[in-house]
Specification:
The protein is an alpha+beta fold and 191 residues long. The protein has helices at residues 11-33, 79-104, 144-147, and strands at 115-116, 150-153, 158-163, 185-189. The protein has a 4-stranded antiparallel β-sheet.
Length: 191
Amino acid sequence: MADPTSIRIDLRAALPAAVFGLVVLVIIFVQLCGREHVKPLADVTPLAQATPAPTFTSGPPATSGPDQATATVVTQLGAVERDNLRLQNLDALQLALTEYSLDNDGYPDTGGSIQSLCAFKEFDEGCKLDEYLDPLPVDPLGDPAVNGYWYVSDGASYTMYAIREGSLVPECFEHPDHLNDFESVMCVLSP
């Protein structure tokens, strides 16, 4: 006779319930974020990925000018995986911006103008983050001058933008004119 005080859990029965609960939470999260402004990335939990990915994708070094922009090879990831990787990259960049701000009493200042994060070493303020995150991540579609990450700051606050391909990641409430070539963008605001 079995000991009546012991409890056994069959993981084969508990796993589907846990997955169902996770799916419901993701759906609720997507619905709520679609109605409100996007919160800082620190408040967002990355979506589950079908395949593991690195913390960020490193790219080519920044170039000295627009005529020398470099490109990377397009990855074979799907839209959802690329959006998840972008979230991870933006999270890593947000940590680098926090460290930069603590050391410099503010964020790299673009004078309120939007720039590529670091496609052009001589021009982009975001290149100052390479002391804190080297190499700086690039968009999974490559070519940081075209598909990269964008940055705007007045020194006291910032916003970073990235392409949004899927519908699982909330769309940014603001769509700067500079990024009109992209149907949808995601953004991360300073805390």
